[in-house]
Amino acid sequence: MRTALTIAGSDSSGGAGIQADIKTMMANGVYAMSAITALTAQNTTGVTAIMEATPEFLGEELDNIFTDIFPDAVKIGMVSSSGLIVKIAEKLKEYDAKNIVVDPVMVATSGARLISEDAVNTLKEYLFPLAQILTPNIPEAEVLSGMTITSEEQMMEAAKVIGDQYGCAVLLKGGHKVNDANDLLYHEGTCRWFYGKRIDNPNTHGTGCTLSSAIASNLAKGFPMDVAVERAKAYISGALAAMLDLGKGSGPMNHGFDITGEYVKEASDHE
């Protein structure tokens, strides 16, 4: 069985962060491991508190993972301070980690800011150059490219700027009023659009975590970059289309929409 590691924050409500990552990895057929960068107290309406791991403890987590069950892919999500970012980069280089997917998380779906200003610069310097692919949304891509993005042409320009700067693929996610659900993959000098049908579901908590983890899962299984993205897009569309409706705010998706069999049956199914 292929393996994948998520390095990210915990979401107490289960819809984003390492909880979303682990569910996604399992649903996409890989064995999931996690190194937790921070505990968050949050639910579908927002984040109320964040307690970070120390860089030393995060390093211990990563040592234990890489020296025992080596991951076939690594997904990196919320890392909110410079010390943690430097430690992750140090360990990824030490163990020569492969198939690194970086979701440059800066703002939660609910609008809460998740990362300090100096951490953005540290991400750019230490972590992005190690990535095989970055998965920014439009606000994040504006920060990373220094551009304003209001059209598909500007999406293509920004993705090229970011990809060329860090020497990696870039999946620039649409939405944010630029287009409906069309994402742009910039990879090896070429652009490819992934056209999605906008799903009328306000419950989008954890979509970024889920997409990046699905990409990592598919890279772990040996799919080429464009196929890994295509499969991840199809998975997240299914998870949204399942129309799970939990919580008072922007709720989670149903990560297990495609899991069937004896052990998901409800009591009523046996009557």
Present the secondary structure layout.
Layout: E1 3-11, H1 17-27, E2 31-43, E3 46-52, H2 55-66, E4 73-76, H3 82-94, E5 100-102, H4 117-127, E6 133-134, H5 138-145, H6 152-166, E7 169-172, E8 183-187, E9 190-194, H7 207-220, H8 225-241
Parallel strand pairs: 1-2, 1-4, 4-5, 5-6, 6-7
Antiparallel strand pairs: 2-3, 7-8, 8-9
Polypeptide structure, described:
This protein has helices at residues 17-27, 55-66, 82-94, 117-127, 138-145, 152-166, 207-220, 225-241, and strands at residues 3-11, 31-43, 46-52, 73-76, 100-102, 133-134, 169-172, 183-187, 190-194. By secondary structure, it is of the alpha/beta class. It has one domain (3-270): Ribokinase (UDP-N-acetylmuramoyl-L-alanine:D-glutamate ligase). A nine-stranded mixed beta sheet has the order 3-2-1-4-5-6-7-8-9, sandwiched between helices.
Provide tags for this entry.
nine-stranded mixed sheet; 271 residues; UDP-N-acetylmuramoyl-L-alanine:D-glutamate ligase; alpha/beta
